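Fold this sequence, please.
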Amino acid sequence: MKETSVLTQPMMTSLEIAELTGKLHRHVMRSIRNMEPGWQKVTESKFGLSTYIDASGRTLPCYLLTKMECLYVATKFNDEARARLVLRWAELERDQLMGQPPVRQKPKEIRLLACDEEVLDEADVIIGDELDELNAASDHCYTPSDIGRPFGLEGRDLNSFLADKGIIRWVKGQWRPTRKYLHQGLTENRSFYYHGRDGHRKLQSRLVWTAKGRDFIIDLIG
């Protein structure tokens, strides 16, 4: 794709879709990402990935969709949201038939991504936003290394200690609290992406401890 500031046909950004449907932009982005594999399987093409500048000056990702792509995504919306999108597309097409310029976006607001590297960079931004939302509950939690450091313990040593006490156990490749401590507000899961041996990005979680959990462990070490 070549970078451009002029669109030769009516297009709609995920930002406008969010505004028209009354949804949060990150939720619209998530819906589009979830539906893209089905579209790609049938059409052999991906949705256009773009960026915009928000009010604080940050460069953030968004999608840029044709009418068919937009209405495909809208199949997951309620009747009122779909109606708003259909009416908006009627406006865009009417303007085009009357010879008015197609929808244009200023370069500082919307730009098409120029190369595969940029697409990957923006994909990482999307994933980062998704992880921020997923990990909101663990923002102020502590890792085993954080808790063990004042006692001269590495994270793996603290985990071994807690396992010996029957507080956590190793299940399917990660530590989890045992049933007795499962619903006491001691722990949260913190998710992260990594690349497996097959080169694919995979999601995994690690056990972290809330402030209550940290105090519990400190009292236990005593």
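Residues 147 and 217 are 8 Å apart (CA to CA). The chain has a mean pLDDT of 80.
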